[in-house]
Amino acid sequence: MEASMKTSVLGFAIATALVAGVANAAEVSVKWDDVKSFTDFEAVNELKSRFEERTKANFTEYVETLGQKLPEQNKLEVTFNDVDLAGRVEPTFGATSSAFQRILDDVSYPHLVISYRYTDAQGEVISEADHVELKALAPSRNIRNVMGSSRDNLYFEKELLQDWFRDTFPNATD
User: Which of 92, 110, 160, 171 has the smallest number of CB atoms closer than 10 Å to its CB?
Assistant: First the structure.
């Protein structure tokens, strides 16, 4: 078989596997309460609207990824009621201007409040809860999460969501 044909066949196989993986995922929807009322959903050195949209999209994508582990006939609805991002925003001062940066420390831990509803194919509620508080006091500082957190602005918040998902849906497939 020619190299280009092998590449085409491999590309088709990968694309088919990706589509099949998405087809086996539960339907997931993510909603947001009033972002303006959130504890800390503050932009650092960028337009607030751009930060909000990017951050909401990032959270939504992550929840959808988690939902891929649930049976395809089911539906998961998650609403973010409050977000307090890890760290705190502090000013920095330069020679000609000031800017801001988010400082991570052991007392500025992330805190999420979500509501969820998980239903089967007939719309029967399997589980649901309102205003579930997700928080971790003083996120651990091991080399794995220090490296991970430097690559993902929502690393610690996603860790909270992952822990909630594992606890709430222990039979979800990997």
Answer: 171
Query: In this structure, which amino acid lies at residue 60?
Result: T
Query: Per-residue pLDDT tens for 52-111?
Result: 999 999 999 999 999 999 999 999 999 999 999 988 777 777 666 667 777 777 777 899
Residue 28: name the closest of 165, 170, 134, 157 by CA: 165
Q: Is residue 17 situated within a structural domain?
A: no
Rounded Cα gap, residues 173 and 67, in angstroms: 10
| Nearest Cα residue to 160 out of 136, 127, 130, 129 | 136
Contacts of 146 (CB under 8 A, 6+ apart): none
User: What is the C-alpha to C-alpha distance for residues 58 and 171, in angstroms, rounded to an integer?
Assistant: 25
- The rounded distance, in Å, linking the Cα atoms of 89 and 42 is 8
Which residue reads 């099949």 in tokens?
20
pLDDT, one tens digit per residue, over 117-164 is 999 999 999 999 999 999 987 555 544 444 445 678 898 899 999 999
Q: What residues make up the domain containing 119?
A: 26-168
Number of domains in the chain: 1
Distance of CA 146 to the CA centre of its chain: 18
* Residue 84 included in any domain: yes
Asked if residue 7 is part of any domain, the answer here is no
